[in-house]
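One-letter codes give the sequence; the fold follows as tokens. Both lines appear below.
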Amino acid sequence: NQDLGFNKEHLMAICLDGFNQDSRIRNLKDQLDQHVNMKGVSLTSKVPMSMRDHYSVYMKDPSSDLDQRIPTIYIDEQYFNLLEIEYKIKPESLSIETEKTSMIVNETFLDLFGEYYQIGDQVELFDYNNSNQPVPIDYPEIKGVVKNFKISRLIEMKQMPCAYILSSNNQNYLLARLVPDKKNETLSSIETTFKEVFPDQVFQYTFIDDEINTFISILSPFARLIFYGTFFAIFIASMGLFALALYITQQKTKEIGIRKVFGASIKNISFQLARYFIKLVLIAFIIAGPITFFGFRKMLQILPERIVLEWSLLFGIGIGIVVLAIGTVLVQSWNAARTNPVV
């Protein structure tokens, strides 16, 4: 349910990877842009939230004079409007046709390098060749700043400074937002248009929701394993408690009789028996509770967006386990307290 920073609803991506920057790509975009059931289209090098097509370059970190790895996405003018991404500093104009390459950066870039780079400055981007020597790639000019949004999978460790370069190169995907109530009809029309422009290519597409669900499906079996494992562990432990309560009450038959002779009530005898088991449960929880709590806390560190395990949760679980233990043994204790030991 986290805010991804962009609108993922009814957003599809058509794969253009391997088309070798075919001039027909622009033709396909123009035709789809005029489609009545299309809210907008854009060309880009990467599908948002996808685990594929990671591309990074380097820049000099002015604060430390070290190389800083920068995730890089190539986009066109409609990219941010299509994804409904908010600007922090909106550019006066964006055009692929300008002489200088334009670049939009995110908030994290501004936070880290805002002291050294301003709107209008050029940034040297480079990569390394096989001899581990820096090779200049481009000198894009910073045109604006957008708010942080998720460009990669949810397990990505932290929000990194990103560069969104306005370019007609590396356009591996066409993003399109469909009118929701005419989805199937629009898909059929898009495929027809695609086949007219690229009769020799296979029509491949995905929806952003599917990309996100693919990642979630990787974690879901693990979550189910924990759920069922915990359920059966509690069930078996409850059976063990019940059996132990049955055994102990049989062993204490004479003691129960003596207590009743001296005026102890059924309620008092029941809680005296139950207290023995509660003590065992509390000892077990004091040992296992913190270990489990810190273990899950450590495991969740791999996710930048995660639930927060508060101490109140641990105490709540402790109370729940005690209540479950009382419910398990109290019935047997109550029956034992009501039994006539003479009989």
Q: What stands out?
A: DSSP finds eight helices and twelve strands in the chain. The mean pLDDT is 83. The two ends are 62 Å apart (CA to CA). The first strand starts at residue 11 and ends at 15.
